[in-house]
Amino acid sequence: MRKTTFLLPIAVILVAGVLSSLFIVDEREKALVLQFGRVVTVKEEPGLAFKIPLIQEVVTYDDRILSREVGPLEVTPLDDRRLIVDAFARYRIADVTQFRQAVGTGGIELAERRLDNILRSETREVLGSVRSDSVLSVDRVSLMNRIRDAAIVEARGLGLEVVDVRLKRTDLPQANLEATFARMRAEREREAADEIARGEEAAQRVRAQADRTVVELVSDANRQSEIVRGEADARRNGIFAEAFGADPEFFEFYRSLNAYRIALQGGNSSMVMSPDSEFFNYLKSDMGR
Fold it and tell me: Which residues form the Band domain (predicted)?
C-alpha cells in the first residue's frame, strides 16, 4: 500500500511529462519549436510531434493564403491628378524561421503592419511613374503586376510570399472629380460639334451635287425640248410654205381668220378701227377683195 502510494505520483508526473512533450501540428499550420527563444525545429508536416517539456515551447503560424486590406491611399501620378486608391494583397508565410526572426513575438499583427508599409510604398512608386489615364484604364492590370513583383522582393525579408496585389478602387477626389467630369463633358461636346460640322459639310456636298445634277438634267431637257420645238417649228413652217405655194389666197384667208380670232377675244380692252380697213377685207366680200 505504501509502495502504491509512492509510485502513483511518479506515474502521474511521468504521464503529465509525456503528454506535455507531445503536440499536434494541424494541416493548416506550421509549427516552430523554440528553446529559450531560439528556433530548434520547424514542423511543417501535419501530425504528432515531440518537444522537451518545460524547456521547449511551440509556436504555430497559419499556413494558408491570407488577405490584407490596404486602406485608402492618396497617390499623385505624373500628370498631378491626385487619385484615391484602395488595394488588397494575398500572401502566405513562406519561411516561418525567417518570419519569427523578423517579427519576433509580434506575430501576424506586426508582419501585416510592415506589409502595409511595403504595399503603400510600392503603390505610390508605381502609380506615381505613370499618368492617371493609365491607372484608370485597362493598363491597371500591368500596374498591379508591377506592384506585386516589387512587393514580393521586399516581403522576402519578412519570410512572406506575396501571391497577388489588386487595386479595388481608383477614384479621383471629389474636387478633382467635378473638374474632370466638366472637362470630359467639354471634350464630348467638342467631339459632337466636330461630328455635326462634318455632317453638315457632307450634307452640303450632297446638296450641291444634287443641285448640280438638277441643273444639268434641266439644261439637257431644255436643250432637247428646244431641239424638238425647233424641228416642229421647221416642219410647221414647211407645211405652211407648202400650203402657201399650193394656194396663196387660201393661206392668206387662213391667216386672216387667225388674226380675227386673236384680236376679237373678249376682255377689258377695246379696239377702234375704220370699217373700210383692210383688216376686214374677208368680212366685206366673199372674195376677200
Answer: 20-184
Q: Are 28 and 2 in contact (CB under 8 A)?
A: no
Distance CA 42, CA 255 (A): 136
Grid coordinates in use for 276? 373700210
Q: How many angstroms separate the CA atoms of 63 and 53, rounded?
A: 25
pLDDT of residue 1: 53
User: What is the average per-residue pLDDT within 224-228?
Assistant: 88
**Quick check: 85 and 75 in contact, CB under 8 A?**
yes
CB 63 within 8 A of CB 92: yes
Cβ(123)–Cβ(147) below 8 Å: yes
166-193: pLDDT as tens digits: 888 777 666 665 666 777 788 888 889 8
CA distance 180 to 160: 40
Q: Cα torsion at 157, 159, 165, 168 (round to 10°)?
A: -100
Instruction: Please give the model's pTM, rounded to 2 decimal places.
Output: 0.54
